[in-house]
Amino acid sequence: MNKEKLGFSNWFKDRINSTDLNKYQIARVITVNKDSYIINNGNDDVYAEITGKLMFKSDSPLDYPTTGDWVLVQFFNEESFAVIHEILPRKSLLKRKASGEKIEYQIIAANVDAAFIIQSLDFDYNIRRLERYLTMINECNIYPVVLLSKSDLISYEEIERKKADIYNVMPNIQIVTCTNSNVSGFNGVKDLLEPGKTYCLLGSSGVGKTTLINNLLGDVLFKTGTVRKNDGKGRHVTTSRQLIILDNGAMIIDTPGMRELGNFSIDSGLENTFNEISELSYSCRYKDCTHTIEKGCAVLTALKDGLISIKRYENYMKMKKESIYNEMSYYEKRQKDKQFGKMCKSIIKQKKNRT
Known about the structure:
alpha/beta; 6-stranded mixed beta sheet; 10 helices; 13 strands
């Protein structure tokens, strides 16, 4: 296998400093562990670590390599070990707010061409959560596909009704139904996977992400878990993000299930996901309209006239408020981190001057 088959296109070639190729080789990050990585140079998987310099100049998780990244490396010990020196420019970066109260980015994957949002048709089906996933994906300029799994558990009429509900608010979205109970059940997914392209699976625990990958591979290579009968929730079986190469040359990144999906810095994602609200906002009387209490608000008028669903409007406003709050908190955190860094440098400088 060569790097082109791993997805190394002209987009990346045009963004490499040719002088770097005299010192380093190009590889792709396949797996991220806590303090180490598995990379592939087009031939073999190799254990790798980052340089101290790269670690020192990193201010946030965005500055560290993630699954799907292309990196510049040096190989040692007959190419059995590698050191990562630099991350190449990213064509796309899928990210979200870290879970819990921590105000920080969590990187999901890099250089993804298309993302499958998987919802099972039994317990997990939720349009409001689907809108959250779409906002995150659209912000990163990644092509979204809705994958409705476990289609064997409900009737054909019920499936069509749920698809119609999605099309009602997202008329241009691509929807594929599948089941892991038989071979023909996931053929619709296989038909979408192109050689050299990178795909990402997103969804809650228990929706069938890992089972789908095992079926696409034709072997049970990854552990799957059971789903609770009372609420359909699954346990986190996938604990790391791994890029998996299929027989046809397509690549899939499996991800742990997400029970929290906080976003920030999602202006374009909101605009593309809630495009009818975004278009109406241009007709508001005030340019800085908040779409809450203002007179002459085109969005509120459309809401009153039933042109926008209340639930969709509420989800839009909720995500917008979350994003603003998280952005402010993140900015404050970065300012504090910078002040702390300056203080540390000042103390080190003073100690040097005394000696």
